[in-house]
Amino acid sequence: GLGLNPGDVVVNGQINVYNQCFGTNCIALDNFWRSLSNLTINVTGNKPGGTPCSNATDFWAVSQAAPFRRVHVNGLLSLMDYCDGSPDFASGGFIADSQFTGASITNGSQQQWVTRNSSLDGWSNGVWNQVFCGDPGAPAQSFGVAGANPYTTLTTCPATEEEPFLYTDSQGSYRVFVPAVQHDSSGPAWAGGSEAGSSVPLSKFFVASPSTSVLAIDLALAAGQDLILTPGVYNLDQSIVVSRPGTVVLGLGMATLVPQRGNAAMVVIPNTGVKVSGLIIDAGPVKSPVLLSVGTPGPGSASNPDLIQDVFFRIGGAETTPVSATVSLLDNASNSILDDVWAWRADHGNAVGWTVNTADTGVVVTGNNVTAYGLFVEHYQKTEVIWSGQGGTDVFFQNEMPYDPPSQSAWMAGPTQDGYPAFLVTKNVKSFQGYGMGSYIVFIQTIATLFADEAFQAPKTPGVQFHDLLVVYLGGSGGDKSIINGVGGPVTSTDNPGIGTPVDLVSYP
């Protein structure tokens, strides 16, 4: 929607994402890379040709990289499509800054989900991992309780900032609204009728297309302009460099950046007020050490943090030739906020294989006091998340181990450490909080028997704490010898409660 508030654009009906059907197998597991934002849906049951199954429900059957932001839904929202047959598995997802009235949300088959700063009118069931942060009406904390749903519930969110958005003002002119940072927040930022933040005229933005040279973009950024990247694929022979504090970089239609010469797609230098959102960043034909680098080591602004939102990384799957990157996202910016990031080394699609689409690590965080919501990091070949900054917080983590290591010797963190952890908090860290974090074992594209010593690894110190961890066995030979640091589990092909049944650890230490 292009209104200043969600109520300015109203849909009386439905906006639906359905399953994809392959023969009789109907699933939403591959419903990636779509988004909905800044409007109101009055769910009505008068769809032409609608069935009793589908008529009175809005369906958002998605998996990763499908943000649902700043939406007011009057009526029933279902996060799975239960009309197209069975199975109807889904593997999402992310809701933020939204309001739901008149009916509960049907979670259904959604394996995991994170909802933050949204007003809820009920939530039904859960599968493995459901995380709520700053959500009035959210279900009570119940993770790990026998017979209860796997709910991790935080009353408030520690540090949030909603995504900038394009809108038209009362004169019909385009502007971009940049919301202000919030601390200890609950509920939608717009619910009171006016939202804290600033409005920026379109004239302050350099509007680029895929044919625009990187030199022209960089010169505009250096000269003080903000940046809008219109839809399309940007093949970049050098990095887009964000050199000025407070710069807004807004991708539309999930503009896609592809470095061509081993460069980063984008380098953000300041630690103050840079907002980057709405992008897909693909690895290119020459290995990039980093695809997106944010900030520099040193202090950052808590009152005007760097912000990375709805930025999604692909290592393979889209390109027809081999692609490679060592690290997808490097966050050096203290006090920065990561909000809905999917870093994906492709397990299917084009040019996929252990020696074809190579990548070590999805996310590296070195900045202090970094807050992350909705980290999805999957299939990387070494440690998938490395967190070395002090005072960090991660609310929700979803991971699948790589499907395809050819042997145990090819997948070793050290001479005596089998496999790699999905999430590593490094030995220097004295304080960290993690909430609602899961790793899944899926060794299905190899004939090898593979083990990881632990899914999560962290220093054994009182200030480093994890709440509501889980590991799920989904296939292959081997598995995790423990959940974290030798505690919890094992979860392996020969020692598990059954395929798809989580093994939980409520707290560590």
Word description of this protein:
With 509 residues, this protein is an all-beta fold. The strands form nine sheets. Strands 20, 21, 22, 24, 26, 28, 30, 32, 34, 38, 41 and 44 form a twelve-stranded mixed β-sheet that branches. Strands 1, 4, 6, 8, 9, 11, 13 and 14 form an eight-stranded parallel β-sheet that branches. An eight-stranded parallel β-sheet has the order 23-25-27-29-31-33-37-40. Strand 35 and strand 36 (417-418) form a beta hairpin. The chain starts with 9 loop residues before the first strand and ends with a strand. The mean pLDDT is 96.
What percentage of residues falls in helices of 4 or more residues?
under 10%
Number of strands: 44
Mean pLDDT metric: 96
End-to-end separation in angstroms reads 45 Å
What's this entry about, in short?
The chain is built from one helix and 44 strands. With 509 residues, the protein is mainly beta.
Q: Which descriptors apply to this entry?
A:
single chain; 509 residues; mainly beta; twelve-stranded mixed β-sheet; eight-stranded parallel β-sheet
Helix and strand topology:
Blueprint: E1 10-13, E2 20-22, E3 25-27, E4 36-43, E5 57-59, E6 68-74, E7 76-78, E8 94-96, E9 99-101, E10 105-106, E11 112-116, E12 123-124, E13 129-133, E14 151-154, E15 157-160, E16 165-168, E17 174-179, E18 182-185, E19 197-201, E20 205-208, H1 214-222, E21 226-229, E22 233-236, E23 240-242, E24 248-259, E25 266-268, E26 275-282, E27 288-294, E28 307-315, E29 325-331, E30 337-345, E31 361-365, E32 371-378, E33 385-387, E34 392-400, E35 412-414, E36 417-418, E37 423-425, E38 432-442, E39 449-452, E40 456-457, E41 464-475, E42 477-480, E43 491-492, E44 503-508
Parallel strand pairs: 1-4, 4-6, 5-7, 6-8, 6-9, 7-10, 8-11, 10-12, 11-13, 13-14, 20-21, 21-24, 22-24, 23-25, 24-26, 25-27, 26-28, 27-29, 28-30, 29-31, 30-32, 31-33, 32-34, 33-37, 34-38, 37-40, 38-41, 39-42
Antiparallel strand pairs: 2-3, 15-18, 16-17, 17-19, 35-36, 41-44, 42-43
